Amino acid sequence: MTQVTKKNVVNVEKTPVQPTLAGTPPTGQEQVKMAVEAKATDAKLSKEEKSRAKQMQRMNAFKLLAPPAKYVKPDGTCMIALNALLPLDKTPIPGAKEAMRQINTEHKETLATALRNGAKLPPITVQFCEVDSVPYAVVVDGYHRWNAIVDNNVARFTTKDKDGNPVVDTVKLEESLKEINLVVKPTSFKNVRDLLRASYTANFTNGLPVTQENRARYAITLMTWARQDGNKKFSMRDAAREAGLSNHAAVSRLLQKLADKAGKMPADYVNLSEEEQREVEEQTINDDAKKSVDETAKSAKAFINSAMRLADTFSDAGFIAEYLNDGGHIADNNLELLKIAAHGFLDAIDQFTRHPVEGETGEDNVIEEG
Questions:
Q1: Which is nearest to 106 in space by CA: 155, 167, 160, 147?
Q2: Does the predicted TM-score (pTM) go above 0.70?
Q3: Beta strand pairing status for 124-131 and 181-187?
Q4: Of 18, 88, 183, 198, which is least surrounded by CB within 10 A?
Q5: Measuring CA to CA, which residue among 157, 135, 134, 149 is closest to residue 182?
Q6: Per residue in 310-358, pLDDT tens?
Q7: Which CATH class is domain 61-209?
């Protein structure tokens, strides 16, 4: 092996650049021109495109890691530091945010109280991975438990200022998060789809019930994967069924909402068949019609309540007498007529709102009591 000496270094520096297989190296003038062109091209890239490129770079560097076998106990659990946990949406996995559930404050506080009272909760399910060259344990299931643990720890380092406002000692809090260890249950997924699938379905059968919108999001994700795999036979109904929905109306509704937000047609957002596209359009029309009926019913309720207050006012002879400025006297028969008219008016409105318009079904046209 040749040793690097001063002489060698000098010779290397003085050795002219030799032509390569790709051709002769660009001259200084050509290098300047290339740099200007690259800068111009870069300037044309939109902020969204740059973000997408950066996300792709992060995704290419993302790695799923097997659990550290020597630390895993016979029951399949292991101990890690609290600050080693990472939420799914902090990874570069496409669609990770949609696979997470929104935190239910009431449920989280219930768990926090249970922990303070000495309760033992099931271990949080995690997947070890490498994000931006740093090892983490991504939370797959147990976000409410995780937040309950953190909230209890925050309370330990929270005081009040002179005005009574809560103040958190963030330095001590961060230090404490490094020292707190908790039991987790590691998984070993082979790919990110399995990881997302597990996150979506974590509470399908237990824990805090999954909302219909969460299930619809999962259905749309399943449809997207099927289209990416070239599986055109996997329909919207199939996706809804696998997501645990009784029908595909919620999927159509959410698909239209997401497509509108993205400025696309539903068929472009997810490659739909012509029949599925028609179903989404029909669902949108039905939803708009129902919304219109609901708004009308709400206005009718408000009108009825106002009319009822008017009837009560008419029942007050003293008020009517004062209003008519007739010296505090009104004939009993006139008062009775006013009351009959007011209540008759209420009955007419009530009958109108309780009976469907001809050609419509009665279900959506009935105004509920109260």
A1: 147
A2: no
A3: parallel
A4: 18
A5: 149
A6: 666 655 555 555 555 554 444 555 555 556 666 666 666 666 555 544 4
A7: alpha beta
